[in-house]
Amino acid sequence: MLMNKYRTKISLSPSTVAVNWTRFSLRLSTKKDFEFPEMKGYFIVMDNAPIHIPQVIDPVIISRGYTPVYLPLYSPELNPIEQFWAIVKGKIKCNKLTDLESLTTHIIEASEAVPVEYLRAFIQHSVNQFDNCLNKVAI
């Protein structure tokens, strides 16, 4: 049994990874509830990871004043980091490593070479696709 400071009881099997995720999210959201009360009513967006069990997580999210939204299976259009990594991977594949270089160095250099305007565009693209997701329109 898990209970947050608002006395919301949550029954979970102690063997599930969801217990740890739920505890973490409760601690985080409790802190954020007090620091950023204007965030109430916002969406909590999650992928379909096995630890995101709607029957367990949704009541917690809703009780805190947020709306849970689950991304469709494989939805890179809704995740700006996927678009970022596609560019980084493309830059890394174009350059062979020498004996003196490391993959880490290449990742850092490729990441730093992505212009900020691209990052903003990735985010805007995901925002533009989000309504399609909510309305269950194929992307």
From TrEMBL:
Residue ranges occupied by any Tc1-like transposase DDE domain in the UniProt entry: 38-103
Q: Which Pfam families match?
A: DDE_3 (PF13358)
Gene3D superfamilies in UniProt: Ribonuclease H-like superfamily/Ribonuclease H
Q: What is the protein's name according to its record?
A: Tc1-like transposase DDE domain-containing protein
Q: Which organism is it from?
A: Helicostylum pulchrum
Organism placement in taxonomy: Eukaryota, Fungi, Fungi incertae sedis, Mucoromycota, Mucoromycotina
